[in-house]
Each structure stands twice: as structure tokens, then as C-alpha cells.
Amino acid sequence: MSEEITKFKVTIDGITVEVAPNTTIVQAARQIGGSAVPPTMCYYSKLENSGGRCRTCLVEVSKGSDKDPRPMPKLVPSCRTTIMDGMEVKVATSEKVKNAVTGITELLLLNHPLDCPICDQAGECKLQDLVYEHGLEKTRTEFPRQTFKKEDIGKYISLNKNRCILCNRCVLVANQLTNERNHGILFRGDHAEISTYISKAIENDFSGNMIDVCPVGALTDRTARFKSRVWFTEPVNARCNCDKCGGKVVLWLKGDEIIRITARKDEYNEVEEFICNECRFERKDLKYWTIEGPAHISDHSVISLNHYELPLPKNDPHYLVNQQKAKTIE
Q1: Domain 115-122+146-222's class?
Q2: I need a labelling partner for 269 at 20 to 30 A (CA). Which of 26, 125, 142, 282 fits?
């Protein structure tokens, strides 16, 4: 007879949930969902040792545990703080948290260029979402923004260091997927930057996943650059017979043209299954793919404005087009 697993009770914004020991606050909050989930710019559940860098996930612990009910004296990063039995946490209900995240957002924008109109990440940028929720109307910075020289890291990936927030996700995904990592964070403090240092090309078969894990527009798809705004494209789930990866992707279509290909992501914008470069960059033709249907897009996203998931009347001119795309393409 198996032993019963001990569960810890934690209350987040007045909602109680039971979790396993060693569960972090952000993991527990994701079981609740909604506004109880802190924003995360560096934490990525599928990457080992991620988190603890950006501080956007700060929360207020108003009760440490049943054994020690004292509140924690300072806000804590929810991605690095584990649950204690009886812990009570405030996220959306805490003014301290709101003020702290506003300040952190201001720091992230300290050197970030205001180039959303030309950035390919616009519409999918987590920093853009964070600024919308917590940003200030005016900046208090009077100094010029830090700039970096352009660096060519290969034919597939475009690196814009000015937009980088040093979340370290791209380094972690390279460590996890390959033994031939060519890039990392160089130098320290305000001189730190993502680079290969000797301008070496990044050509590993799974290097394109760096694009999917990047929360801002520092790493973008060079093959799709400036071809279309994301909200003008239609994302559909598709798959192919690939011997390197699972071949389960999202095709971003403009008519019958594939603008770009990305891995499928969950509700927290995290990759479900990493894909290879051949699927991502080399198969930009519908003949390679079997269409499974429309990809689900969160209602809060600008991409959902197309409402392509809604059922269309049969007399609508888009009805037949959507029916054809839902069929298997041989």
C-alpha cells in the first residue's frame, strides 16, 4: 500500500490550494490561475535553473506558515521561494507588489529602445504587456540609452542587444538542448551583454528555440523579418514527419504563404515541445505540413482580434478558406 503524499496548503489572494512540498509560489499560483499568477520574464518552467533574475514576480508573504505566522519582512521572488504549509501570499491584492513591479518595469525600460513600431516581437512581447499593466506615462531618465554594435550570429537568428533584458533564457535553452553552445552573457553589471564574443555563427540544429523562449525582441526570426505584423497572420497547428523533433508546430499564415514557424506554446507562453531548425526555417511550404486546425490564442492578445476561431456562417467568404485549411494537405 503506497504512502499518502503530504500536501501543503497555501492561500494566494484569498484562494486556497494544496500543493506538493518544494513547490514554488509561482507554480502554486499557476494552479489557481488568473490574476493570482505573477508575471515572469526570466522564469521558465521547462528550463533548469531559470528564474531569480528579473524580479517581476515579486509577491508579498503576509503569513509565513502555520508554525511561524509572521509575515516575511520583504517582498520575495515567487519563482525562487518554496511553499510552507499554511502560507498566505498576496499578489494582485497587494499595493506593495504593484508598486514594486512598476519600479522594476521602469528599470527594465531604462535602456530599452522605444522601437515597438519596427520590432517583430510587437504583439507577442511580454515586456510590452508588462508595460501596459505597470508602466509609467513618463520616464524619469535623463541619460542616453545604452547601445551596442550590431552582431551577426548566423543566417537564421537576428540579435538586437539593445532590447535584451538579460533574462538568460536563451543561454539556458542552449545548455539544455546542445553541448555546442557558442554564446552566453559576457562582462558584468551595466556592461553585461549576450554575445558570442568572437562573432561566431550559432548553427546548432535546435538553436532556433532561443527565439521562442526570448520574452522580448532581442532574438527574432531572420527569415521572417519585416514580412508581416503578427496580428495580420493566422496561426494554425500543424505537424510533419520529422526524425529530429516531434514536428508539432504553429504555422503563421498570410493567405497560403507561411510567414514563420514557431513551436507550440502553453497558456504561460512556454514551449510545449522544442523543434529543430529544419522544421522552423527550411519548411516554409504547405506541402510539408498536415494542418490540424486553428491554434488557440489568449483572448487578451492582440492576435485574437481576428477572431478566426469563431464559427463563421456558411455564406461568409472566409468559410470555405478555413474549411480547406482544416483538411489534411498532402
Answers
A1: alpha beta
A2: 282
Tell me what the pLDDT averaged over the chain comes to: 87
Q: What is the pLDDT of residue 10?
A: 96
Q: Which helix (H) or strand (E) holds 184?
A: strand 184-186
C-alpha cell at 138: 513618463
CB contact at 8 A, 63 and 116:
no
Rounded Cα gap, residues 291 and 265, in angstroms: 17
> 217 by DSSP, 3-state: which?
coil
What's this model's pTM, rounded to 2 decimal places?
0.84
> CATH says 8-104 is which class?
alpha beta
- Cα distance between residue 196 and residue 151, in whole Å: 9
Structural element, H or E, at residue 60: strand 58-63
Residues 263 and 45: their CA atoms lie apart, in Å, by 16
Q: 230: which 3 cell numbers?
A: 503578427
Rounded to 5 degrees, what angle do the CA atoms 83, 89, 95 make? Answer: 150
Secondary structure of residue 142 in the 3-state scheme? coil
Q: Look up residue 124 and give its amino acid.
A: E
Q: In Å, how far are 121, 223, 278 from 284, measured between CA atoms?
A: 20, 10, 10
Res. 147: pLDDT tops 90: no
Tell which residue, 60, 42, 50, has the closest CA to residue 100.
60
Task: Give the whole-angstrom CA distance, residue 288 versus residue 272.
Answer: 21
* Residue-range domain boundaries for the chain: 8-104, 115-122+146-222, 229-326
C-beta separation of 171 from 185 below 8 A = yes
Closest CA to 53 of 210, 133, 169: 169
Q: Which of 63-67, 202-206, 308-312 has the lowest mean pLDDT?
A: 308-312
Question: Rg of the chain over CA atoms, in angstroms?
Answer: 22
DSSP state of 21: T
Helix (H) or strand (E) holding 171: helix 169-177
